[in-house]
Design goal:
Length: 162
């Protein structure tokens, strides 16, 4: 992967000037490359990762679930059309085709366990070609998108030995 993309993937706030210094390219060349990546759809959007556990806001109590979905592929389009129907729901934050016992892995966000349960019962399981699901609720995040969410506080006490 291009080094400009690697830098932006780690820190989307890096400016073209900073990237130019890191890559030993001109700022204009960096701006041009970024613009081309955006036009081609290589760069889809810039995003902030929020550690919601540190917010004391009661409105940030979203529940996340991983749902494994077993589907039968459609003739002519395979898994793609079924996956497209599934990932079109606003509750679906991510959708991946897998190898192994299940075909799709979904990351779902809802206001409660009940809203996710309703999503599975009323929306997901009613789709043609969906044969089965298995839901796992995320209890705590330690790392997200390659970033560690927990700040480790070092003990400031002096060690005493006898």
């Amino acid at each position: 992967m291009d080094e400009i993309l690697e830098i932006l993937e780690k820190d989307a706030r890096a400016t073209p000037k900073e990237i130019a210094k890191m890559t030993r390219k001109s700022e204009q060349a960096v701006k041009k490359a970024i613009s081309e990546y955006e036009k081609k759809g290589v760069i889809i959007k810039y995003k902030t990762i929020v550690n919601k556990e540190l917010l004391k806001d009661e409105n940030c109590t979203d529940v996340l679930a991983l749902i494994e979905v077993s589907i039968s592929p459609e003739r002519g389009s395979g898994f793609d059309k079924v996956a497209e129907r599934i990932y079109s729901f606003p509750e679906v934050k991510s959708c991946y085709l897998l190898s192994g016992g299940y075909d799709l892995l979904l990351i779902i966000e809802g206001k409660s366990i009940h809203t996710i349960g309703n999503f599975v019962a009323e929306k997901l399981s009613t789709i043609d070609h969906v044969r089965g699901t298995q839901t796992h609720f995320i209890l705590k995040k330690y790392k997200d998108g390659g970033d560690i969410l927990r700040r480790i506080v070092k003990d400031k006490r002096i060690a005493i030995s006898m």
